[in-house]
Amino acid sequence: MSLNAEQLLATKNELARNFELSGLTKQQVCNELNISSIKFDRIMQLEQTALEDPWILKNFLVAHVITAGNQPVPFTALSGDYHRHWFLNSQTIEKAVMSLGDH
């Protein structure tokens, strides 16, 4: 599945806003998800090769936004049940295991 320009911009903004609402630092996210800051930036810009990585980050951020007592910003493109998207590996998302490397 590919996103059009409007969906890409919206998703980047939704990720950024939820990251802000989570109250976490970039380093905290990287440490908890066991990723580099380069990979974090690539995911935030939707430049990551593995399609599951943005979903993992989305779920992670939403959980932390709620824990922080805030209301998550809804996602427009990364929405619905990821199990229903044939192109995603739902087990990878459930395990929250990011792809290897920075790409």
From TrEMBL:
Q: Which domain of life is it from?
A: Bacteria
- InterPro entries in alphabetical order: DUF2316
Supply the name of the protein: DUF2316 domain-containing protein
**Organism whose genome encodes this protein:** Secundilactobacillus collinoides (Lactobacillus collinoides)
